[in-house]
Known about the structure:
This protein is an alpha/beta fold and 225 residues long. The protein has six helices and eight strands. The protein has helices at 29-32, 46-60, 73-86, 109-124, 137-153, 167-177, and strands spanning 2-3, 9-10, 19-24, 66-69, 91-92, 160-165, 196-202, 205-213.
Amino acid sequence: MALSPAGETSGSGGSRGRRVILWRHGQTSWNVERRFQGSTDVELTGTGVAQARRAARLLAGLKPDAIIASDLKRAADTAAELAALTGLQPVHDEALRETYAGVWQGLTHDEIIARYGDEYTAWKRGEPVRRGGGELETEVADRAAPVVLRHADKLPDDGTLVVVSHGGTIRTTIGRLIGLDPRSWESLGGLTNCCWSVLGEGALGWRLLEHNAGTLPEPVLGDDD
Length: 225
């Protein structure tokens, strides 16, 4: 059965063998500058487009049944590369956007540490923090996880859904779907640009099968963006 965002089971009977691939968008200039993007609509760089095309060739081989994506350009353009290879029409949903982070958005990592160090440290400890006066991580999961579940429920048995989103939104969604306490979501490592995580459906709910797949290890640029 699949875990609902509230931690309750949904559906009937045992596992249907469905799979959810959560794919982070390609590189942007703000990623390179370590600038917090949040819900700011920043486009892919040329490198980001190349990353998306390479990853799309790999993901197309998994024969996805459906694609959903954040409507922000960096995610929508990443999804478009997979759509071009599979013929699937992505469904865009603003609920899959990155965390809104208020005054943090546009600041570099060093600027955030200098101006909001206590807030940043509390967040890294797993405390519920409205970074920059924006959303709590649990609120991001509240909007994103139900969208993923709704589309996953439409899959055929053994079907595959590709979700194109952002580092922070993917982390909170994974944490919610596999039933982790929100205080431990930060223990899920960040995703490199255009890498992905795979959730598989088991008898007791969703399980994390792969994390940060798709490349040899590279630095994670801008975890929550």
